[in-house]
Amino acid sequence: MNTEELQVVAFEIILSSGNARSLVHEAFGFMREGQYEEAKQKLEDANTELLAAHHAQTSLLQNYASGVEIKIEIIMVHAQDHLMTTMTLREVALEMLALYQKIA
């Protein structure tokens, strides 16, 4: 896999996880307003974006497992970091949604 191909995959991961992060923050806003169904929908939409990022990541893993040499660059490290922190943020948001609903 050449550098350009790797960068394309990295940016796909960054784009999708960035979209997911924005949706999670929108969900937080709905939670604060007591609009729990809207928050839930935003978190589901965020999950769809995270799945897109995960599919891009999986393609790299499949290539690697097939013997394709993949040189890791700083942009890929950033992409992975972005994806993992957004996945964690969504998990926390799901817990917060449950707590908001419990105390409402």
From TrEMBL:
<feature type="modified residue" description="Phosphohistidine; by HPr">
    <location>
        <position position="78"/>
    </location>
</feature>
<dbReference type="Pfam" id="PF02255">
    <property type="entry name" value="PTS_IIA"/>
</dbReference>
<protein>
    <submittedName>
        <fullName>PTS system cellobiose-specific IIA component</fullName>
    </submittedName>
</protein>
<keyword id="KW-0813">Transport</keyword>
<dbReference type="InterPro" id="IPR036542">
    <property type="entry name" value="PTS_IIA_lac/cel_sf"/>
</dbReference>
<keyword id="KW-0762">Sugar transport</keyword>
<keyword id="KW-0598">Phosphotransferase system</keyword>
<dbReference type="InterPro" id="IPR003188">
    <property type="entry name" value="PTS_IIA_lac/cel"/>
</dbReference>
<keyword id="KW-0808">Transferase</keyword>
